[in-house]
Amino acid sequence: MSAETPGESAGTFARLRLRFRDWRGTRPFWAGLFTVLGGIPIAYFPYATLKLGHMSLAMATTAGAGSLIIGVLLVTLGLTMWFQSATRVFAGVAAILLALVSLVVSNIGGFLIGFLLALVGGALALSWVPGKPSSGATGDHHGSDAPAGQAAPGGIPEDPAAGPYFPAAPYEKGEDGETDGVRAAARDGGHRVG
């Protein structure tokens, strides 16, 4: 065993961890995880036999097949969220609907454990939005990425709360040579900018 072996294994572990972190950041990872974890108790409890001392408690119901189908579908939807993140909206809505159906079909949604996990997973899938690629190490800001109050490439200040910015036309001069702000404001939709 050489002195470099722990360093190499730590480097491999760090590299794998960073690759997993990058993979996790490009998809609704937590939504898929909660949905998969929600499907397991929904599918498991109707077929489980719990032993309490010498007493066996069987929770088999007539809807055991329905519970199994709901659980398998939730696991499949969770994996879909991981590997086909473009279908996250469909998978999120389907996970929420299946979680609601599991309340009636599967022992109160896997004793509320599976129901709550699947519901949170579906909500996370609906709320997840892919991130925008970073502008790189240059630090340049363009368009809507410019901080509030700073100018975008066209010289127009970018303020998210202000809405669209239309440059103001100079005041028009009337027949008598004076500026007529009322006529210009009427042309601009009632608001005088500038």
TrEMBL record:
Residues 146-171 have a biased composition (Low complexity). Keywords: Membrane, Transmembrane, Transmembrane helix. Residues 185-194 have a biased composition (Basic and acidic residues). The keyword tRNA processing does not apply. The keyword Electron transport does not apply. It comes from the Bacteria. Residues 135-194 are annotated as: Disordered. Coiled coil: none annotated. InterPro entries: DUF6114. The chain crosses the membrane at residues 29-47, 59-82, 89-105. This is Integral membrane protein. It comes from Streptomyces capillispiralis. The lineage of its organism: Bacteria, Bacillati, Actinomycetota, Actinomycetes, Kitasatosporales.
